[in-house]
Model the fold of this input.
Amino acid sequence: MFIIIASRAKPLSLSLCLMINVPFLAADSIITDRPDATESSSVVDKGTVQLETGFLFADDSTEESLESFGSLVRIGFAEKWEARIAWSGYIDFDSKSFGGSDGIGDAAIGFKYFIQPEQGFQPMTALILHINTPIGDDAFSTDAFDPSFLVAFSHTLSETSSLGYNLGASLESSAQASVEKTTLASIDYSITYGFSVSESIGSYLEIFGSQGLSSPESPINIDGGFTYLLDDDTQFDLFAGVGINDEAPDWFIGIGFAKGCR
Done:
């Protein structure tokens, strides 16, 4: 899931709702949609509730932001279906020229639908749809119910590696200097290579970003990280990355945690 931190002050924004779908994990081990930006193509089992949360710090030459407890709750409510409730977290934003602000970010609600399993060259596929819910403080809310969607794909490359990729689109409402609302459209994309380090440690390398349509910004980022599987239902993660164009943050780093209850 891609949650854009949207602010009238335009803080650093990263689409981070963050899977490593590494095939060495046991079939009944937790599979998360963090720490990378690429969403997994699997859904949680019916009757499962899974919490994924963490912290993200991003910085560039003009501003920095700390997002605390950005979270995703995934609820398996039927075969092939999961409900999703996401929250951008508590955001502390600082402009190095104009001061800063802090407050809660917007939420989003939606679902993921499992379309098909992997068969030969045919990837495992899922559809994800979200609607932004403008509950955030003024500086960190779009004040609109903006939709987004992604199609998530994944391939098993070997017993210890996999390839995942997403393609979708999003709308984001923004307040301009004239105080008139405008809605900006972007194409969102990502591709990640996940591989095992051991039976409990996974890792990934990824490129992700968005291509502005009506939006003037098209950030591109590269990141990588590690996950540690404490048990079949508990995962910790650490990740870091850099922006590779001027519209992305110079660098970012984060940690997180995921817990499933079946």
